[in-house]
Design a protein that fits this description.
Length: 138
């Protein structure tokens, strides 16, 4: 990654809907060159996706961190499944006793419990420890 790639990423972090033409003007490169760079960063896993932030709909949601112990070295097999789940906001692979940590959003404790139960049905998941967030310090 060079300075141009870093500028592209910074611009996309500010506005993931920025067109390739706008992005090209922003970094003073051709549209084709920027498109090629973005495509390469996606292929290399530097850019994992393009998202938006939505206001107000998250109100009333609570957060929890779930610690997962997996069977074998299966993080790479489980991640594609986890990223499809609407409750999951972040997925982390860890070194140590816990293999993965998920940050999830939920409405009720029953929803959180059901989410945990569904995770335990997955062949790669051995154990799940749920840690509901009591307070966010800002």
């Amino acid at each position: 990654m060079d300075k141009i790639d870093e500028l592209i990423i910074a611009a996309l972090k500010d506005d993931s809907r920025m067109s390739l033409a706008q992005l090209a003007r922003h970094v003073h490169k051709s549209r084709t060159a920027v498109e090629s760079r973005v495509k390469k960063m996606v292929e290399k896993g530097i850019i994992l996706g393009f998202t938006i932030n939505v206001a107000a709909e998250d109100e009333g949601l609570q957060s929890a961190f779930l610690m997962l112990k997996l069977t074998g070295n299966s993080c790479h097999l489980l991640f594609p499944i986890l990223k499809q789940l609407s409750e999951v906001t972040h997925v982390y692979s860890l070194f140590g006793e816990v293999d993965m940590m998920l940050e999830v959003k939920y409405r009720t404790f029953e929803d959180l419990t059901a989410f945990k139960d569904n995770l335990l049905k997955n062949e790669y998941v051995k154990d799940v420890v749920v840690n509901p967030v009591l307070k966010v310090w800002r």
